[in-house]
Amino acid sequence: GEFPFVTAAPGGGATVGDIILEIGGTPVLGMTLGDVRGVLNSCPHPIRIKTGLGIWLYLSKCFTPGSMDSQLQQLIRENLYLRAVPCTTRQPRDGEISGVDYNFVSIKEFFSLEESGALLESGKFKGMQS
To answer: Cys-Cys crosslink for 92: which of 55, 83, 96, 130, Cβ 3.0 to 4.6 Å?
Structure first.
């Protein structure tokens, strides 16, 4: 559940930590690591990569509904959350499958994930951490 980012930048241009927005013209925000690898493997060389900074800030901003920024923000969120399985500290309900519907974790595990930056976002529901 993490945005693809640059891990090495020997040739300049990109900086380690930059978020990868596109690979060879294909938007990759919200894709799983496997999907991103698939895009990389299918691109002819040299591979053109578009990067950006501050995606979390961008996603947290409020834009005018219907504006290009608002539409892009929504597309990023939809792509991201289609491939993410949320974590919760509540107990599974009948029929819910761990790792499919939610990742059911203890409160201690949740805080550890939150502190390490492994969660895309976190919040409280009705006063409880979820």
So the answer is: 96
